[in-house]
Each structure stands twice: as C-alpha cells, then as structure tokens.
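hiii, so i know i said id send this last week but things got crazy w the move. better late than never?? heres the sequnce for the chain we talked about at the cafe, plus the structure i predicted for it. fair warning i was half asleep when i ran it
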Amino acid sequence: MLSPADFFDLDGFVHSALFDGVEYVWEVIGRIHHYALAAATGEVLGQVMEGAQLIGDRITIGPGSVVEPGAMIKSPCVIGRDTEVRQGAYLRGNVVVGDGCVVGHCSELKNAVLLDGAGAPHFNYVGDSILGRRVNLGAGTKTSNVKVLGSTVVVKVNGREYDTGLRKLGAILGDGAQTGCNVVLNPGTLIGRNTRVYPCTSVRGYYGDNMLIKLRQAVEAEPL
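okay and structure toks below
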C-alpha cells in the first residue's frame, strides 16, 4: 500500500534505481541529494537560452529539453529529454526530472522527483515531494512541506500513524493524479494513482487510487 510500486510504474524510468530497496515511498526523499549528485554529470545536451542561469557544475540536461530565459537551475540537478523549463522557473537543487516534463512559469522545485510526463506548469511549489508519471498540478497548487510547529511529519493511513522521521516532507502523487487550481497539499499527503482533487481544496492524509476529492462549500449572493 505504501511502497513505491503502489504509486508508480517504474519500468523504463531512467532513475528507477532511486527507489530500489525502499519499503515506504517517503524514504526516497532522503535519497534525492546523493542520487542527484551522482547522476548529474554536467553534460548539457538540451538548449539553454540566453538569460537562463545554471549555477554549479552538477547539472545535466538531456537532448530536446529547453531552458527558457529567466529560469534558474542550481546544482545538483538532472533533467531528462524533451522537458520544458519555462521562463521564471526555479530549480533549487536536489532535483531529478524525467523525460517530457514541464516546470512552468514561477514554479519552484526543491528536493523533488518528477517522473516522466509530470507537470508543475503554473505557479507551483514542489518541495520534498514526488510527482508520478503524467501528474499535473493545477495553477497555484503548493506542496506544503513543513509543519507549523516544526515536528517530524506523521503520515496517517487507515487509522494508523507512521512517523516518517522527516521534518520536511511535502506530497507524493501517484501516476496520473491531478489537482485543480490553488490546491494545498499539506505535509505528508499521499495521493493514489489517477485520483483528482477539486480546486481550492486543502488536503492531508492518504487517498487511494481512482478517487475524486471534492470540496463542498456554500456560496451566497445577497443584494448590496
């Protein structure tokens, strides 16, 4: 229920070794830095347009990928093939991005993994988080990764609590999951495969596969 295989199809994913031997999917978060350092060879085969900034020598960009003006990428970072890093994007380091992904305008990634086809296309924050294949975050969706009181993040699943031992843990979204605009994914949120989240919803905890997470609110209109 909580292993990487429960959330992601790792067959053919270039960075599947990152998930080897992991019992609980959130354990990958603590591995990202060392994996990115080893995997980032410094080879830049994609297009880095004038005005983009690459900081540090441990940055790899695959063929067909484009980094637009105004984007900033810090080492270590690995970006696969045919990925778009759009104007104003900020990749803060310890980032592994697969093939065919989108990191959009004013989106920020930090200590994160995006599997092939994942998108954080508009004003997103993805910190200490994993997005599965073809995950799409609606504009303004944020992964909140630190509890207000700063204690370790506890994941709650079917009435059982798992202390992750991590002070920073955002969200993990399984393959094909999607969020609407301005969703907040609170620390330690786990979203199953192909599950959808309504716009403007604040969610926490565990949600299984193929679910629709709705926000019910009353809207009233009165004469001025």
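btw DSSP finds two helices and 24 strands in the chain. thought thatd interest u
miss u guys!!
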